[in-house]
Write a structure and sequence with these properties.
By secondary structure, the protein is of the alpha+beta class. The protein folds into three domains: about 170 residues, no CATH class; about 60 residues, no CATH class; about 130 residues, 2-Layer Sandwich (Heat Shock Protein 90), CATH 3.30.565.10. Helices cover about 60% and strands about 15% of the residues. It has 16 helices and ten strands. It has a five-stranded antiparallel β-sheet. Strands 6-7-8-10-9 form a five-stranded mixed β-sheet, with helices on one face. Helix 2 runs antiparallel to helix 4 and helix 13 runs parallel beside helix 14.
Length: about 475
């Protein structure tokens, strides 16, 4: 089977939803905020001071939720010290000593940034989540919850609003997206609960800001609890949905099935794309067999039928039917592809030419201008396979439609390039023949053009100077 197939399977399996893409953006944004705090430090504190007539400096405003607020700074406190000494409290000070008449509070303009370990752990979880999304999206969602939770725990209380709100809200918002993605339209209540929880958190945050609450740590912890709680609801919805789909697909209660069978059905549904990938692989295998039958069996079968219709001998017809039987055995054992895999393109083409000559009696010449010496000098496997299939199809087309006396196969190949030319002296291709064949769904032409496009090669089909047809494959294009 062509090595193109695994890439197609990956593309079909990895189709992230809009919710998942948005969640990656939220998780990445929270980590960028935490990275900024680690590298640059916290922003300037939101403290307003004013100069009183008695030559005192008083705090007139403090942003709730920031470092100064969490350290106990409140409006009405007096500034009794400042560094550098020649800077006014309303200027670019570095540290400030504030008192309420009893206790003294030291405020640093740039508080110590968080340690880098939470950032490293968050980025690792983000990378693992993206990788896991190809196989187990539900696990990927849980990994995506880690970065905003770490950012909330290590950054939300040392910055001033509104950045602290954004960092704290990242976890619950991402968990709500998880619910939307997992529950879908089958569990609207869960979606409303998740969105409602995030909305209530926003209302609570706004109320705390408006009433200047003292305990902002509770809001940070509540954000973490909401993220985990909503995520757990979504995870449960994913499992319940998987069980329901598996039960519907089996047509019976899972408890009545063998444990291995029941587990397989659940895994098929719990990992989106697994069952679809298996079905796609089956369809791909059927398409491959159809192509092989068209390329290997149909030409000989058509020739045998034509021979019988034209009054040919029974021995000749039997010989052709025996050749078809050999082709079918080769197809079931895939012997030619084993030869191609183990020895390379040149031996495989030599074997192909010998088989065509023995089966049809046509004279086929193989001219190898350059051949790789050693496995390291061979081109990629998909290039070799494509060149082999193109040669096989070109030979079959020539023998089936052109009635040539002589066919020449020219090959020039190494690790970095491949050029294959198949030319014959038959009736030749006329203008518009290829377009008509493609429009009518000619499998051979569709197959070789698709294979060439998949490896980035160019293929040319046209009339050969002096009569006949020429098929040219060149890689890279």
């Amino acid at each position: 089977m062509s090595s193109i197939a695994p890439r197609e399977a990956q593309i079909r399996r990895f189709r992230p939803t809009r919710a998942f893409v948005a969640a990656i953006g939220i998780a990445l944004a929270s980590q960028l905020a935490l990275a900024w705090l680690v590298v640059v430090g916290t922003p300037a504190l939101s403290i307003g001071v004013t100069h009183e007539p008695d030559d005192r400096w008083l705090v007139t405003s403090v942003a709730p939720g920031g470092v100064a607020w969490n350290n106990g700074t409140r409006p009405g406190m007096e500034v009794i010290g400042i560094s550098p000494a020649d800077v006014l409290p309303s200027g670019e000070w570095a540290s400030m000593l504030i008192t309420d008449g009893l206790a003294q509070i030291t405020i640093q303009r740039h508080d110590l940034p968080p340690r880098p370990e939470p950032l490293i752990a968050g980025l690792l979880a983000l990378g693992l989540a993206i990788l896991a999304s190809r196989v187990v999206p539900s696990v990927a969602w849980w990994l995506l919850l880690v970065p905003p939770i770490l950012a909330s725990l290590h950054g939300a209380l040392i910055v001033d609003p509104p950045l602290s709100l954004a960092i704290e809200l990242a976890g619950p918002a991402l968990a709500a997206l998880y619910v939307v993605d997992a529950a879908g339209s089958t569990a609207r209540i869960a979606r409303f609960v998740a969105i409602g929880a995030v909305t209530l958190y926003l209302v609570g945050w706004a109320a705390s800001f408006a009433t200047a609450q003292d305990d902002w740590v509770a809001l940070r912890d509540l954000a973490v609890v909401l993220a985990v709680g909503i995520g757990a609801v979504a995870f449960a919805a994913t499992i319940a949905s998987a069980f329901a789909r598996a039960r519907a697909r089996s047509g019976a209660s899972l408890s009545t099935l063998a444990p291995v069978v029941a587990l397989g059905l659940i895994v098929d549904e719990f990992v989106p794309g697994r069952n679809r990938t298996r079905l796609t692989a089956i369809e791909r295998e059927r398409a491959r067999l159809a192509t092989e039958l068209h390329a290997d069996v149909l030409p000989d079968l058509s020739a045998a039928i034509r021979s019988i219709e034209e009054g040919g001998s029974a021995d000749e017809a039997a010989q052709r039917l025996r050749a078809i039987a050999v082709d079918l055995r080769d197809l079931m054992g895939d012997r030619r592809l084993s030869l191609l895999e183990e020895l390379g393109l040149v031996p495989a083409l030599e074997w192909l030419v010998e088989q065509v000559e023995a089966r049809t009696g046509a004279r086929v010449e193989l001219d190898v201008e350059n051949a790789p010496l050693g496995s390291e000098a061979r081109p990629p496997r998909d290039v070799e396979l494509t060149a082999y299939r193109v040669c096989q199809q070109a030979l079959d087309n020539a023998l089936l439609h052109a009635r040539p006396r002589h066919i020449r196969v020219r090959l020039d190949v190494d690790a970095g390039h491949a050029e294959l030319e198949v030319s014959d002296d038959g009736v030749g291709i006329r203008a518009g023949d290829e377009d008509r064949a493609l429009r009518t769904g000619h499998m051979g032409l569709v197959d070789i053009r698709g294979r060439a496009a998949a490896i980035g090669a160019v293929i040319q089909i046209g009339a050969r100077p002096g009569g006949g047809t020429m098929v040219l494959l060149r890689w890279p294009a």
